[in-house]
Automatic annotation (TrEMBL):
<dbReference type="InterPro" id="IPR027417">
    <property type="entry name" value="P-loop_NTPase"/>
</dbReference>
<feature type="region of interest" description="Disordered">
    <location>
        <begin position="149"/>
        <end position="185"/>
    </location>
</feature>
<feature type="compositionally biased region" description="Low complexity">
    <location>
        <begin position="158"/>
        <end position="176"/>
    </location>
</feature>
<protein>
    <submittedName>
        <fullName>Uncharacterized protein</fullName>
    </submittedName>
</protein>
């Protein structure tokens, strides 16, 4: 089976096996690469996997994902038909995501550090939480708060079969600098 056929088979199975797979890209700190990561993940699902995909800009502080979309449109770039970009920075975001599950194969949520409440609400609907972070002390300091906000969230209820979920170990302290490193971490 060719890789292209395998990808299309996976996409077809994914679309019929469960409601939208929801990926939340979030961190309770700005500037960690959330929006860039969310865009590439959404494009992968829309273009490569050929799934109807919603990129949801849920950052209350910055609407970068949606702004990039508007700039691309104004410049004449063609947006793939499978990709819908919208913004929704409100506290009832979990209800919005839940309502959109039946319409899309994938929902990618870009949620920033501007609101712990919006982050928490988005995570309640997530099948996967991605936390972009650079190996710096300032970013690692926000990891504990990010995982604390996500930790009490139960997995989303689905009406049909869902992909396997995994848990992660939340760090209790920031990891130490590697031995021999001369700069501060």
């Amino acid at each position: 089976m060719s890789e292209n056929t395998r990808t299309k088979t996976l996409a077809a199975a994914t679309a019929s096996a469960w409601d939208a797979f929801v990926i939340v890209v979030g961190m309770l700190k700005g500037g960690t690469g959330k929006t860039t990561s969310a865009w590439f993940i959404a494009l992968y699902h829309a273009v490569v996997l050929d799934l109807p995909t919603l990129l949801l800009n849920a950052d209350a502080t910055s609407q970068s994902a949606y702004d990039w979309f508007k700039v691309a449109q104004a410049a004449g770039f063609e947006i793939h038909a499978n990709l819908v970009i919208t913004r929704y920075p409100f506290d009832d975001i979990a209800e919005y995501i839940s309502a959109k599950r039946a319409e899309f194969g994938a929902i990618v949520v870009d949620v920033g550090g501007g609101s712990a409440r919006i982050f928490h609400e988005a995570v309640t609907e997530a099948n996967l939480l991605l936390v972009p972070v650079a190996p710096t002390k300032i970013e690692r300091r926000k990891l504990v708060a990010t995982f604390d906000e996500a930790e009490p969230v139960p997995p989303p209820a689905t009406s049909t079969a869902s992909p396997p979920t995994s848990s992660w170990s939340r760090p209790t302290t920031a990891p130490a600098c590697p031995a021999g490193r001369r700069t501060s971490c």
